[in-house]
Amino acid sequence: MARMTDVTSTKAKAFEDNDLIREAAALTREFSIAKPGIYWPDFLGSALVGYIGLYFAMSGSSLVIQFAGAAIAITFLYRAALFIHEITHMKRDHVPGFRWVWNFLVGIPMLIPSFTYEDTHNQHHSKMRYGTDRDPEYLPLALMKPHMLVFFMAVAALGSIGFLFRFAVLSPLSLISPWIRRETVARFSTLSINPSYRRALPEGEFRRDWIIMETGASLWSIGVLTAVAIGWIPLNAFLIYLTIVAAALVLNQVRTLVAHLWENDGEVLSVTEQYLDSVNVPPPGIMGEFWAPVGLRYHALHHLVPSVPYHALPEVHRRLASKFGDGSNYDKANYPNLRGLLARLVASSVSGGKSS
């Protein structure tokens, strides 16, 4: 049963729940195959509905139609975009072609080609990096002052403008300046929330893929801005497009706020401690499927079984919850809703946040 719980005293013991780890490993072996028959319809359907919504948001004959279109676009393009998380974990031969089709249909038009997440996201799963200053996706937000939470959300709200500038301006400039290239890769090429994280230059086959994706995103960004400048795309339609991309980024940032408890201040944690610092929001609540789709409502479970595809996580959760029961370490990472998690984070920040 999902419920709120305080894991601080459990964390302090620095332990590993070996029974839980072994059971999770066994289920990983059973459920590690991604199913193309689920991935393709889910992704393509989400993208199609999202772009239909975007069309009506940009060209609807009334404000009611435009707002309805925008709501549909945000919901479904957000879902389609979050397949980027699956791309970072799946074996390419499980769903052939998915990575490139995703980039062409969603990653590039939404200004988040998959290289911005690939390679670095797996560092967030590293036992020696998670929760430390070398983790690109971790900040001890629960230990920071409330203004940092406001800043955290403001960054997402400006994200569509920032990504447009990155690909339309910095990408071309980086072709003529090695220094701009190094800085662009290090500081402006990763979906990271850790401001001290610096990315290394890509190498090998990944470097080739990166160049293809970045070229596509740069040409898209320059093309869109040019079309707006010469009047092919109306300014109001362009602003609606940017707003919808920004809204999806804000929604993802809200999800990120509650993906972890954010209570670790740089220590190396065991796998169990990483799990307890992470969050599941399982059924019976249904809203989690909207704000944390594509398996991300099982984010703590994902840290136990990172190679298990999103469509198998509900069954893995059901089995682990049934085996270990209420009050177990597995149960302690399960929470009932977004509202309670946000309240917990804000209360922790207000009462104990440190200056940053």
TrEMBL record:
Alphabetical keyword list? Membrane, Transmembrane, Transmembrane helix
Q: Name one GO cellular component term.
A: membrane
The residues that cross the membrane are: 38-57, 63-85, 97-117, 148-169, 211-232
Q: Which residue range or ranges hold the Fatty acid desaturase domain?
A: 69-326
Name of a matching Pfam family: FA_desaturase
Q: Which superkingdom, per the lineage? A: Bacteria
Is Transport one of the keywords?
Answer: no
Molecular function per GO: oxidoreductase activity, acting on paired donors, with oxidation of a pair of donors resulting in the reduction of molecular oxygen to two molecules of water
Q: Tell me which Gene Ontology terms the entry assigns under biological process.
A: lipid biosynthetic process
Q: Please tell me whether the keyword tRNA-binding is annotated for this protein.
A: no
Under PANTHER family, the record lists: DELTA(5) FATTY ACID DESATURASE C-RELATED, FATTY ACID DESATURASE 2
Protein name in the entry: Fatty acid desaturase
Specify the species.
Sphingorhabdus pulchriflava
